[in-house]
Please model this.
Amino acid sequence: MVLSKGVPLYLHTVNELFNHNSYYLLQVKMRKILLLIATLFTVMCASASDVEKIQFANAGKFSLGVMSGFPRFEHNMPLISLDAMIGLKDGFCHTNKFGDNGAVDLGVYIGYARNEYIYNNLVYNEELQATQNLGEYTWSSWTLPASIRSAFHWEFVKNLDVYAGLQFGCSYSSTKDSPRNGGGGTERNRFKLFSNQYLGVKWMFTQHFGVKTEANMGRFIFGKRCCDLAVPLGSVGFQFNF
Model:
């Protein structure tokens, strides 16, 4: 819920409370979805027996992911991102069913998001006891998150790579309000640290190319709004292995 600037303070307070509750409920739903996804993969792959060792997240192998975030309720989505990972160790979990499986990688993540919209700047005049429209304003923003991240991979079936990981990084954002009829505007820059947990799935068509999707739960650990998300809740894209 977005309110125009200049409305009474108590309405902004109600708006912030609404946003906070919405984010909380959204995160609870995402946790349930992630748990459901993990359960479904476990059930579907329980009878798989055609994987005897790790195929794609091998030690020393370099991978590059290119993704776009799902549209969200926040203004800074969708988000274009790149992630570059290198395998550190593989095959350290031995099971009778899946052989020498399990792998760990380490890498970096960087994204970019930009958005812009137009709104009416409404101000309540106490003398006139009426709301005045100061004209149309343009609101624009861009966000640049970057992080270091690592994931644990397990390959249940051939060509499928399921992984879960953590990432820690920082996000720099800039927002600007300016009247459309000219004149000065206001600009604000913010720097925040964040941590994030993510769950992903890759389907590889060949040894070097595939598609991927990730679900994220990101929280800022430094900043005024702890419910902001640094990365999109969900992303889809392409995977390249070298």
The chain is about 15% helix and 55% strand. The chain has one domain: 9-241.
